[in-house]
Write a structure and sequence with these properties.
Layout: H1 2-24, E1 32-38, E2 46-52, E3 57-58, E4 61-67, H2 72-82, E5 103-111, H3 119-127, E6 131-137, H4 142-157, E7 158-159, E8 162-166, E9 171-172, H5 174-183, E10 190-192, E11 196-199, E12 206-209, E13 214-218, H6 219-226, H7 230-233, H8 240-255, E14 285-286, H9 292-303, E15 315-320, E16 325-330
Parallel strand pairs: 3-7, 4-5, 4-8, 5-6
Antiparallel strand pairs: 1-2, 8-13, 9-14, 10-13, 11-12, 15-16
Helix pairs in contact: 4-6
Length: 332
């Protein structure tokens, strides 16, 4: 009998050891202490205490969209149309690995001074898993706080390749985006419409940054950003896209990163020139669609692009801003 109990105990210990090492090799979020009690049948039960992390959800990209409480209709458009893979022509994803189609949207929403979180927002939060309510009060400055929060939480919660920041009034060309990123560098990548220079106040340093309508940061850079000190992240840059460029510049300097950090927009892989009057579908992001029906019509125009009628896929969505008329044409 003692032999049987000893074998049981030995097997139990082996199980715990294997469990420990198995979880240790997986990507983890902040650790937690686990206590396991083994019923050995001996005079005293054996208790094991060890630290284990939770496995991260493995995805290709995190899509961060700073949002306001009242923007429920815009969020719903993203969910049901813009980032709904089933509405796109499946042929456009040909050759793209299935894992590249796994992504997580993070709508980060702050509080209003009057009511905190509205009943409608709380109800929406109960229906969807993409809404993240933060304590930040809604304001222009809140964009910076939301960005820093999203960067940190994305690393804690997900095992991803790319962090993407975009806005409500931007339509993401999902086929072009995943096709391009599938071929893009997995490290040291910061790209978008990155032709703007800014000089920071505290360090008197000039740096490039990508416009906030749509930019991409590889995970390794996001990880390094989260390791920066508070005095490096809390800087008086009044807009979020400028702050992103600043954070990248600090990481580049601290880690002595060299090479093509920002691929030029005429690169065959990373073409991404934003021009609200000339929206060609080689791009990844279509920005400045300030009305919801403009966003919707741009999406429908792009989604219905016919490679037979327009082989080069250079469809163009034209907006006549004065009379709010629209048309979708092939620009051969």
């Amino acid at each position: 009998m003692r032999c049987i109990r000893a074998r049981y105990l030995a097997c139990s210990i082996a199980f715990v050891v294997l469990l420990y090492f198995y979880t240790d090799i997986l990507p983890t979020i902040p650790q937690e202490t686990i206590i396991i009690t083994l019923k050995t049948g001996l005079k005293h039960d054996v208790m094991f205490e060890y630290v284990r992390g939770k496995q991260l959800e493995k995805i290709f990209m995190v899509i961060f969209i700073p949002s306001k409480p009242e923007a429920g209709k815009w969020r719903e458009h993203v969910r049901t149309k813009g980032l709904n893979i089933s509405l796109w022509n499946g042929n456009e994803f040909e050759g793209v690995p299935k894992e590249c189609l796994r992504f997580k949207v993070m709508f980060v929403v702050g509080k209003t001074k009057e009511n905190g979180y509205s009943d409608d927002l709380l109800h929406e939060n109960s229906m969807h898993d993409d809404l993240y309510l933060v304590e930040t009060m809604e304001s222009i400055v809140a964009l910076n706080e939301k960005l820093l929060w999203a960067l940190r939480k994305s690393v804690e919660m997900f095992d991803f390749k790319y962090f993407i920041k975009t806005d409500h009034d931007t339509m993401i060309d999902l086929p072009n985006l995943v096709t391009g990123l599938n071929l893009a560098p997995r490290q040291n990548l910061y790209t978008g419409k990155c032709d703007i220079k800014l000089k920071s106040t505290p360090y008197n340093q000039t740096f490039d940054y990508c416009k906030g309508g749509g930019y991409v940061i590889s995970r390794d850079l996001v990880q390094k950003i989260t390791e920066l000190n508070d005095n490096e992240t809390d800087v008086p840059i009044p807009f979020e896209d400028g702050l992103s460029g600043w954070l990248i510049s600090r990481v580049v300097q601290k880690h002595n990163i060299t090479g093509a950090l920002i691929p030029k927009h005429d690169d065959n892989v990373l073409q991404n020139v934003t021009d609200s009057t000339n929206l060609f579908f080689i791009k990844w992001f279509y920005h400045y669609l300030k009305l919801l029906h403009w966003l919707d019509k741009t999406f429908e125009c792009r989604r219905k692009a016919d490679p037979v009628l327009c082989p080069s896929m250079k469809y163009k969505y034209l907006t006549r801003w004065k009379n709010d008329g629209v048309e979708c044409v092939c620009n051969e």
